[in-house]
Amino acid sequence: MSGELSGQVAIVTGGASGIGAASAALLAAAGAAVVVADLNAAKDGIGRFVRHDVTAEESWQALLADVLEREGRLDIMINNAGISGGAGSVESTDVETWQRVQAVNAEGVFLGCKYAIQGMKRTGPDKSTSKGSIVNISSVAGLQAGAGSIAYTASKGAVRLLSKSVALYCAEQKYDIRCNAVHPGGVDTPIFDLLWQFMGRDQGKAMIDKRHPIGRMAEPGEIGEVVLWLASDRSSFVTGAEIAADGGITTGLMRRQPFVAS
Amino acid sequence: MSRLEGKVVLISGGASGIGAATARLVVRQGGQAVLADRDEAKGRALADELGDGALFTALDVADETSWTKAVAATVETFGGLHGLLNAAGVGVRNSIEDCSLAEFRRVNDINGLGTFLGCKAAIPAMKQAGGGSIVNISSVLGLRGASYAMAYCASKGAVRLLTKHVALHCAQMKYNIRCNSVHPGYIDTPMIAPRLDQSIGNMSGRQWLEELHPLGRLGRAEEVAHMILFLLSDESSFSTGSEFVCDGGLTA
Ligand SMILES: NC(=O)c1ccc[n+]([C@@H]2O[C@H](COP(=O)([O-])OP(=O)(O)OC[C@H]3O[C@@H](n4cnc5c(N)ncnc54)[C@H](O)[C@@H]3O)[C@@H](O)[C@H]2O)c1
Ligand SMILES: NC(=O)c1ccc[n+]([C@@H]2O[C@H](COP(=O)([O-])OP(=O)(O)OC[C@H]3O[C@@H](n4cnc5c(N)ncnc54)[C@H](O)[C@@H]3O)[C@@H](O)[C@H]2O)c1
Fold first, then answer.
1. Cross-strand pairs, A132
2. B244 CA to middle of ligand 1, Å?
3. PANTHER family of this UniProt entry (chain A) (predicted)?
């Protein structure tokens, strides 16, 4: 397929579901060869599936080696895999939950950036130069609290800042690798399955819809479009940025309610 | 001089730098300070110097039982807990390429997990006392990135946001506990001492860091301590979930 991204190779972690799957589809439609790296494959998933656990460094080593061997290069890294970790408050969250959420959402993104750079350093025209775009999925919970557990909000705050550190580092090293964070508002994906079970899909969705000034949650593809833009050269002057795609949540004063009456 | 009269403040990292400067100020303002640190020698020496208003207790912020003991020692000695300063922290230089997973975890365990555990351990005692104020030290590197501070930026970004969570949670639960973050620029403490003597181009590390700040100098631990004092005291009773910057204009 020819397109804006033809000849480029993208990895999407957590690409079997939700925002990751929508991003993978858009990247593929733009011509990129997409590798979906997830714990589990999707039915009829986009691209080539590789079983991958973002929390395990050996898994990253194997994934990168595999992609460089099969696809031969790496241009785009979408660090999207994430878990909500439930609705824990500062009082109810235990150390195990904290560590599990940080391991996926923060350490997973750290490792994703680290191995992406290794791959992208070999990607330039003569394999001695480097080029690429890293997109990390944070959340409105990385901009302000009140939209998730303490472990989740802390992990997304970590992603917000580590993305800036990576952006500056790559700029200083003259790598031509950009790194940005996307901060979605509520997106209708299976990440909400637990909440839907708890309060019913219709009622739950209505509650989350209402929190957005524009009155509704996003469809995964609306975040995928932001990811695509950041992945492509159209955003060539954007690095270290925080891109909110949140239906206006962080624009004004947010009326916060506890997710679950505890 | 009694802005903290009757208030008991637990200070992680109280043996050195910003934590130690805050401990001095707390005692001078009529409060009681519990210096909780893994550096026993320095912590005990300062507690002795500060006299009856101060206590040292050993603490490893990354260990949950250690926090339980520190809070229990505080309540046992001084009868309650009204303030918590999470100042224990480590400053580590690393980039995305040279930071190992083990190092990432070590920094985040002290700066991130340690702050979470401090808040969690303090809340029950503060509820008992009828309310309180928690102050978490993030950094300008919790507001902006630095290429040379990968794991540190991540940990301070976590502190910035977990602070907002704690503020909202306590407000919703009507605990009368506030929680704010402080974001210092470069402060002249033992943490940055190793960097001051290095040379960067034709500048000393000290000069290089000084010139980063519009005010043209490093901050002093006492200057940050004064901001923390305000947040610990009832003077700041309408501030919660906020970011207090003390950086000589660095992020302006
Ligand atoms: N849905 C929202 O409202 C929303 C809002 C803001 C941010 N986000 C973030 O967007 C990202 C994607 O979320 P989503 O809503 O599409 O969720 P989702 O649950 O639909 O998809 C997440 C995917 O990540 C995978 N995954 C989980 N742990 C993994 C691991 N250790 N290794 C590899 N893959 C793993 C899952 O298998 C799943 O396919 C997450 O980082 C999430 O925090 C979501
Ligand atoms: N100095 C600066 O330029 C600067 C700038 C921004 C933020 N900060 C932050 O301010 C806080 C205080 O830093 P400082 O400059 O006073 O540093 P410091 O090194 O003088 O003091 C830090 C103290 O924390 C203690 N500590 C470290 N790990 C610990 C652990 N696991 N358990 C218990 N105690 C532990 C140390 O023993 C030390 O006494 C830190 O969180 C730091 O990240 C400092």
1. A177
2. 32
3. DEHYDROGENASES, SHORT CHAIN, OXIDOREDUCTASE UCPA
- What strand order describes the sheet that includes A33-38? A48-51, A33-38, A9-13, A76-79, A132-137, A177-184, A242-245
User: CATH: 1.20.81.30, 3.40.50.2300, 3.40.50.720, 2.30.30.30. Which one for B8-192+220-246?
Assistant: 3.40.50.720
Specify the ligand 1 atom closest to the Cα of A84: 43
Quick one: pLDDT at residue A123?
Answer: 73
Cα separation, B154 vs B158, in Å, equals 6
Instruction: Please report the pLDDT score of residue A255 as a whole number.
Output: 63
User: Within 10 Å of residue B59's Cβ, how many Cβ atoms?
Assistant: 30
- Domain membership flag for residue A259: no
The ranges of chain B with pLDDT < 50 are none
Tokens 């080029």 sit at which residue?
A131
Instruction: Return the beta strands (E) in A76-219 as ranges.
Output: 76-79, 132-137, 177-184
Relative to beta strand B8-12, strand A177-184 is unpaired
Residue A254 has pLDDT above 80, yes or no: no
Protein residues whose CB sits closer than 6 Å to any atom of ligand 1: A 13-14, 16-20, 38-40, 52-55, 80-83, 104, 137, 139, 184, 186-187, 189-191
What is the Cα–Cα distance from B225 to B22, expressed in whole angstroms?
A: 5
Number of domains in chain A: 1
| B contacts of A211 (beta carbons < 8 Å) | none
Distance CA A248, CA B5 (A): 44
Q: What is the mean pLDDT of residues A11-40?
A: 98
On whether any CB of chain B is under 8 Å from the CB of A182, the answer is: no
| Verdict on whether the full-model pTM lies above 0.80 | yes
